[in-house]
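Q: My labmate handed me this sequence with no annotations at all. I'd like to see what the chain might look like in three dimensions before we decide whether it's worth expressing. Could you predict it?
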Amino acid sequence: MADSYRIFGSELSPYSVKVRSYFRYKRIPHEWLIRSAATESEFQRHAKLPLIPLVLAPDGTALQDSTPIIEHLERIHPEPPIQPADPALAFLSALIEEYADEWGNKPMFHYRWVYAPDQDSAAERIARSMMPSVAEDAVVSAIATIKTRMVPRLALVGSSAATKDVIEGSFHRQLGILERHLERRPYLFGGRPTLADFGLYAQLYQCATDPTPGAIMRAQAPRTLAWVARMLEPRADGTFETWEALQPTLLSLLRDEIAAIFLPWSTANARALGAGERTFAVTLAGTPFTQETQKYHAKSLAVLRARYAELRARDARDAIDAILAHAQCLEWLR
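A: Here is what I predict for the chain of 334 residues:
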């Protein structure tokens, strides 16, 4: 397919399935390729970073990093739009996507690599996808190697015995909020998906496939699971709603997760990076949270604040400031 994109990814990569969901929604011709021994040489020829997803355009252009990939393709394929025309709602969608990418990966990674059944499940699925058609003893060896490599990386997302309650509490709270919010609508902002849906779904899709968080979701979050399933093949089944319609349940996600947890954590990380500190500590939900400083997170917060500053310079300033102030997010974005 000469006019088709090629997506190098993995079923166990949230950012890969995020991009795949976007391609499916836009009906953009594409080929889904598992990054494995069979595709590694082509991946290495085009990838500037050893990260998935990698999208190879028909003209040979290579794209990496899920949000820039989507933003690039949105300029080429603007219909149907994935952001509401209301600039305040579009910013809120971008804010939720940022929360999903930068904080939502913590519960996903935590559950996957803290609990033994989840470690075994993920390591086996990764090994079998990366090494198709190999001898069983090689797969067993690879499973052990993957666990040895991945479990120590829990520190990179701040997962530890001391932060367990914060991370798992955030996961349970998020599910409770989404269950209420998705009771009356198929997607986060109404009758069609937004950037926020692609970002948040991607993390929760991973959780749904792992034993421990998957069991929690099946027991406590049937509407969220149904939304995750819709996001595998998302469709435009209606219009975007107004803030007045969304506020009764969406406000809680902004206030109780993004303002109370994500933005204080992200701000503390950026400050520590600016001070040249290798680690940082911040109190979240009344509990100390410590982790290594992350450069990418600081960069993405700067992009988010620049987007907010641009919005305030336009006519939407009063509307977005009123929403953000009500949600207790405003102080973190100025």
